């Protein structure tokens, strides 16, 4: 079968026309991949330095996909085999760990509500336990998690949402998606300057921060938490390490909450995925995507590294 293959950690995948077929076992079946969604986690895993480990080389990457079930229905899953991922004609998955797509939603659109959508929705709903009328700040608002995060906060009852991004065009989009106010956070900014800009738009401080970036934006956001506020740490698109003064956390009685989709029970994941599909079909939730053939995997990989601002979908 055709497959994108990682031969060396730190290198992009190479397209192979004759990769060995995955073999099913008692629990898992080899199913045709209809569409694969690319995510930052695919690059982290392929770096060989992912905090949760990387598969043995060589392997087929791709943590999520839309597969064709034996009865012909299309279904989403992020429970694919570590060495036979979604960037191939076939993948290996337990059919019980798939979610058939609701009628009316396309495969590419549904993939937006998989790994990225879940990180936005469940970090707010399950981890921050967002309460009605709370003031929310969404960092990295130009990324997929950020764009869905702005809308998820609204749908989950936030009183106000402020969006922060390095890109002016992303801020305009965040406003259209429901953010009341926006703050430009240039990559090289000083955290104190960023904090001042955040305080200008929300002098009362934030009760919840959705943080997919870490680095200076997260440090600035922590300095703008209201007493007792929560920052949900979802990703480190900006930087893996950031020093925080201890007194800043104590003084604010702040909670920094680690979040990963890996820790979500399957029924919660399934429920949140279907809720987002439903919100999309009702016209309440939007996320941009771009489709390309699997042959363009090297180009897609590089674009994912830059932060494409849209979900990249590969068709095998
Ligand atoms: N914990 C989990 O389960 C989970 C699940 C999904 C994703 N994640 C993580 O969440 C993060 C975002 O994922 P995504 O799907 O939204 O990726 P994405 O669509 O590629 O977006 C990444 C965003 O990060 C921001 N960013 C990148 N480099 C930056 C820098 N140097 N300084 C400041 N901001 C920077 C950018 O936002 P702006 O353009 O707005 O500046 C960019 O659009 C990734 O780190 C990913 O690994 C975690």
From TrEMBL:
Domain Enoyl reductase (ER): from-to ranges: 10-314
A molecular-function term among this protein's GO annotations: oxidoreductase activity
InterPro entries to which the protein is assigned, alphabetical: ADH-like_C, ER, GroES-like_sf, NAD(P)-bd_dom_sf, Zn-ADH-like_protein
Organism domain of life: Bacteria
The name this protein goes by in its record: NADPH2:quinone reductase
């Amino acid at each position: 079968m055709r497959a994108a293959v990682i031969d060396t950690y730190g290198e992009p995948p190479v397209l192979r026309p004759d990769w060995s077929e995955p073999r099913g076992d008692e629990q898992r079946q080899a199913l045709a991949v209809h569409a694969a969604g690319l995510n930052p986690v695919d690059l982290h895993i392929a770096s060989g330095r992912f905090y949760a480990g990387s598969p043995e080389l060589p392997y087929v990457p791709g943590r999520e996909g839309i597969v064709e079930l034996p009865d012909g229905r299309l279904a989403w899953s992020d429970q694919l085999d570590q060495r036979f991922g979604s960037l191939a004609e076939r993948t290996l998955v337990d059919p019980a760990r798939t979610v058939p797509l609701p009628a009316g939603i396309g495969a590419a659109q549904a993939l937006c509500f998989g790994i990225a959508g879940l990180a936005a929705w469940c970090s707010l709903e399950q981890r921050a336990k967002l309460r009605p009328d709370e003031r929310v700040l969404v960092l990295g608002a130009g990324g997929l998690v950020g764009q869905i995060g702005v809308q998820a906060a609204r749908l989950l009852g936030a009183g106000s949402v402020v969006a922060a991004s390095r890109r002016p065009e992303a801020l305009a989009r965040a406003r259209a998606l429901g953010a009341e106010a926006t703050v430009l956070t240039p990559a090289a900014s000083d955290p104190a300057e960023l904090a001042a800009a955040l305080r200008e738009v929300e002098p009362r401080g934030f009760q919840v921060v959705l943080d997919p970036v870490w680095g200076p934006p997260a440090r600035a956001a922590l300095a703008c938490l209201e007493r007792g506020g929560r920052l949900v740490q979802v990703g480190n698109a900006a930087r893996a390490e950031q020093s925080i003064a201890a007194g800043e956390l104590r003084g604010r009685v702040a909670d920094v909450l680690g979040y990963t989709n890996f820790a979500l029970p399957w029924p919660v994941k399934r429920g949140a995925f279907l809720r987002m599909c439903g919100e999309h079909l009702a016209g309440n939730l939007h996320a941009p995507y771009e489709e390309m053939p699997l042959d363009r995997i090297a180009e897609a990989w590089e674009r994912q590294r830059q932060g494409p601002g849209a979900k990249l979908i590969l068709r095998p």
